[in-house]
């Protein structure tokens, strides 16, 4: 068995799909799957074969998934979960209240979205509505890497204005 065949079999297995399906919010399941794939594909062939032959590959993969989900220092949390929570709180009030009063930081952040460059504002709104970088990519045709960078830059600008 080759490393690629082992990883492919793992990804199409019912156990792996069921494990990913338990992750909430559902809109981030594809991103989680991609992060797990990246981690496994970066491992050496010897390590994958050793885990597979010892019967520990599924356990190891579940530990990767749990670490990505639960750790607020994991790359998955930093890329997707941390920003997703922040944006979901900001986008809906922005759509409902175009003229917020500036009584607290949340209202300042909402006003910050309104004052963004038009491209950044629209990407933020789409990301808040669709929930994932891949979904925005499918909707707009813009590569998800560009969308990710735009969202990160816009959030950084909003944080500066709020602080």
Layout of SSEs?
Layout: H1 3-12, H2 14-21, H3 29-42, H4 45-54, H5 57-70, H6 75-96, H7 105-114, H8 118-130, H9 133-140, H10 144-162
Q: How helical, in percent, are the residues?
A: over 70%
Report strand %: under 5%
**Average pLDDT score:** 79
Q: Residue ranges: pLDDT <50 for 5 or more in a row?
A: 84-103
SSE succession: HHHHHHHHHH
The largest β sheet comes out as: none
Q: Cα-atom Rg, whole angstroms?
A: 19 Å
Straight-line distance between termini = 54 Å
Describe the protein in words.
The model is unreliable at 84-103 (pLDDT under 50). The protein is 79% helix and 0% strand. The chain has 163 residues and is mainly alpha-helical. The protein is elongated and about 55 Å long.
Give a summary of the structure in a few sentences.
The chain is mainly alpha-helical and 163 residues long.
Keywords:
0% strand; 163 residues; elongated; mainly alpha; 79% helix
């Amino acid at each position: 068995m080759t490393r690629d065949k082992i990883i492919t079999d793992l990804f199409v297995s019912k156990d792996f799909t069921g494990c990913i399906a338990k992750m909430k919010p559902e809109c981030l399941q594809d991103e989680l799957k991609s992060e797990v794939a990246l981690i496994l594909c970066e491992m050496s062939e010897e390590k994958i074969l050793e885990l597979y032959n010892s019967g520990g590959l599924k356990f190891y993969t579940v530990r990767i998934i749990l670490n990505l989900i639960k750790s607020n220092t994991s790359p998955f949390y930093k890329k997707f979960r941390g920003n997703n929570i922040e944006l979901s709180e900001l986008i809906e009030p922005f759509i409902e209240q175009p003229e917020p009063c500036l009584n607290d930081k949340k209202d300042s952040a909402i006003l910050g979205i309104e004052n963004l460059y038009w491209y950044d504002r629209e990407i933020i709104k789409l990301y808040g509505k669709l929930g994932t970088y891949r979904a925005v990519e499918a909707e707009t045709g813009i590569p998800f890497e560009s969308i990710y960078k735009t969202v990160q830059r816009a959030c950084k600008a909003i944080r500066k204005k709020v602080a």
